[in-house]
Write a structure and sequence with these properties.
Shape of chain A: elongated
Oligomer: homodimer
Structural class of chain A: mainly alpha
Largest interface: A-B, 75 and 70 residues
Largest sheet of chain A: 3 strands, antiparallel
Radius of gyration of chain A: 20 Å
Strand content of chain A: 5-15%
Strand order of the largest sheet of chain A: 1-3-2
Chain lengths: 179, 179
DNA sequence: GCAATATACTAGGACATCCAAGGGTTTGGA
DNA sequence: TCCAAACCCTTGGATGTCCTAGTATATTGC
């Protein structure tokens, strides 16, 4: 990480927007830019913690998702939907996790199109250890005040719902589409 | 964008964290995951608007930065610092912008190590048009309530300062002043 | 003044993401 | 029944980000 800048570049961008007569959108521009930059900082922090485990964030997310599935296995398209990434990104992650012996592919019992991703014992162990590391080194020291965490969850939750990520109301339980 | 999920996957992840006895870090985990996902959604929206201009967000950011520099030119290392990306990312962006005739490289008048990035007239025009599009199609319809925008700017600003992005005090001080 | 150190940019490689396209499997309507 | 449409996964290509290393230029210190 380089030396801190003397001034906040996003605050400066906001001033530039206002100076050019775009005051009406200067604040949302600043908020959105701040989200982009914060994501970059958080991702770097997370990847730093995962590196000793030979994992990237994308691979960790898949591993963690599998570890929470009761059977330890999920169809690839389901993983793609839950992680909200493109199917090819899941293919990529599975390729590498499989090469590392952390997951394996198995055919779906009834649907010949579908491939199941299955956690190996090594994969389950590594997921546990990596989660413990993230919990203590990132999430427990997130850098956000407690009430700000709640604000973020609320604000970004509303945004994501409006963006079409999901459709439920806050707090309910049901598992859909068991085929 | 696929069909909305019936349930919020991040809220589910939070429940999983709590069920495994990690309640103390479940909320920060959810907040951080939400930031990652929100960034992904916003980036996709922005890139969609910029695509007709032949720009990506990375190239647009550089173009916009140059357009706010009085001389329309910046040293590459300065651009790297202000955009807070790795120098090689700037090299990459400049390569492509130069190929498109939007910027050009010129030697620094006094420092032989430094290369200046200069906006061409075409680059300046395109920056204006792209900014207008982003303002009306993204920032003016950000999907955040007005007071939530302020919250985001405050929360993420504090985070970025603590993370070492910059060192100045907030522009509009609500805290006791010390001059 | 000259060598050692620091700084600036670029080349090459690893990863991740998306899109477009292709081949196999299933489903559903004529 | 049967073929077209829908669905699932993978391959190949484009982009962006970072890291490491290498080259060139400046600055510093003796």
């Amino acid at each position: 990480m380089a030396t801190p800048l003397p001034r906040d570049p996003i605050a400066d961008a906001r001033l530039n927007w206002e100076r050019h007569g775009w005051s009406d959108v200067a604040a949302p521009m600043a908020a959105i830019t701040a989200i982009m930059r914060t994501q970059q900082l958080l991702l770097a922090r997370i990847e730093g913690v995962l590196k000793p485990f030979g994992l990237t964030f994308a691979r960790y997310e898949l591993l963690a998702l599998l570890s929470f599935a009761r059977s330890g296995a999920l169809p690839m398209n389901k993983a793609s939907a839950l992680l909200q990434v493109h199917p090819t990104s899941v293919t990529n992650a599975v390729d590498r996790l499989q090469q590392a012996g952390l997951v394996l592919r198995s055919p779906h019992p009834t649907d010949g199109r579908t491939t199941l991703i299955e956690l190996t014992p090594e994969g389950r162990t590594l997921a546990k250890r990596a989660t413990a590391a993230l919990n203590s080194e990132v999430f427990a020291q997130s850098g956000f005040a407690e009430q700000d965490v709640d604000q973020l969850i609320r604000i970004l939750g509303t945004f994501r719902r409006n963006a079409g990520d999901f459709s439920d109301e806050p707090a309910r339980a049901e598992w859909p589409d068991h085929h």
